[in-house]
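FORM 12-B: Structure-to-Sequence Request
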């Protein structure tokens, strides 16, 4: 195995990466949509958007693997950022750079095919990571497919630019230190954890009170989740949690914030002042979860969700606890009625 070298402009590259505020952030709709599209186009088991930090490779978005990060020294994408062109590995087991890599030998994965293209920070030519496609069997990539991968990487660049805007900075609270953000993320679902989403809820309440507007709060529960976990085991249960979380992020409104409360419950903050649109968003989520099977190692699993909804009223909801309690009350009402429904309080 050959470890990736440091980039010729490593200090500047790392500065550009850290300036994006992307490290240790939850799933974002735009990035998840790009990896979903890439998977459909190339029909590969794994697609990832990786960010190459000083000592680690951190995945901003990944489909087909439960990894959140790897050491930089074993990363394929660490090699990709060294040139402004695609890195194509048709069979890693016969490539001297990778054949003894734990991502290839089975210790941390079974990568045989890899194709990656560098991605860049906003208004900066330094590569900060890569969009990559991975397969567990050897394969070739055509010139046309290589060009498509380049175009998709350019979409990632555009999404990074959007994320980097001042408005997006405020929305995602990226002024927090990177290490602090990490304590507010859930490792399984890749969304905000209970503490993180509650902090965001308080911020949204303060903002809506000041602007005299409402917003929607969803308390979401996976119906029969305990039965799934008991039947398929904890690992598959975690895969289901991640798949549900990903659907909530991808298919809810782009302004929504999604957090995992623990057990089988999520919370979604939807900062819209249109009650009708809020209800439409909830029903769309319910239908998508119901009709799209979740892919896990145990096979495809169908699930349903129940959503309790409350509209913020500054005259009624003085504390986050009262707003969350009302949303939970609506959720319980939906559960007792049989689940797979939305209930508004």
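FORM 12-B RESPONSE
SEQUENCE OUT:
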């Amino acid at each position: 195995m050959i470890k990736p070298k440091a980039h010729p402009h490593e200090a500047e590259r790392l500065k550009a990466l850290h300036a994006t505020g992307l490290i240790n952030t939850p799933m974002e709709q735009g990035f998840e949509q790009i990896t979903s599209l890439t998977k459909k186009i190339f029909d590969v088991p794994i697609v990832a958007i990786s960010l190459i930090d000083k000592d680690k490779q951190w995945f901003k978005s990944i489909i087909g693997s439960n990894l959140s990060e790897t050491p930089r020294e074993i990363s394929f994408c660490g090699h990709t950022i060294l040139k402004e062109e695609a890195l194509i590995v048709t069979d890693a087991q016969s490539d001297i750079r990778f054949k003894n890599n734990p991502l290839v030998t089975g210790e941390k994965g079974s990568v045989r095919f890899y194709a990656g293209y560098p991605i860049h920070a906003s208004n900066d030519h330094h590569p900060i990571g890569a969009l990559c496609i991975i397969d567990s069997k050897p394969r070739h990539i055509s010139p046309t497919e290589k060009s498509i991968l380049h175009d998709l990487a350019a979409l990632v660049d555009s999404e990074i630019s959007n994320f980097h805007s001042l408005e997006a900075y405020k929305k995602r609270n990226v002024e927090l230190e990177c290490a602090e953000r990490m304590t507010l993320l859930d490792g399984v679902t890749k969304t905000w954890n209970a503490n993180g989403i509650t902090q965001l809820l308080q911020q949204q309440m303060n903002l809506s009170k000041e602007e005299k507007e409402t917003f929607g709060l969803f308390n979401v529960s996976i119906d029969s989740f305990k039965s799934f976990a008991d039947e398929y085991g904890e690992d598959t249960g975690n895969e289901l949690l991640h798949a549900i979380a990903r659907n909530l992020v991808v298919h809810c409104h782009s302004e929504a914030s999604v957090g995992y409360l623990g057990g089988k419950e999520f919370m979604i903050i939807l900062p819209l002042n249109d009650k009708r649109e809020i209800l439409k968003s909830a029903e769309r989520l319910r239908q998508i979860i119901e009709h799209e099977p979740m892919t896990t190692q145990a096979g495809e699993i169908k699930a349903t969700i129940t959503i309790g909804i409350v509209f913020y009223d500054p005259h009624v909801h003085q504390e986050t606890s009262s707003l969350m309690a009302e949303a939970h009350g609506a959720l319980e009402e939906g559960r007792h009625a049989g689940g797979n429904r939305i209930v508004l309080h």
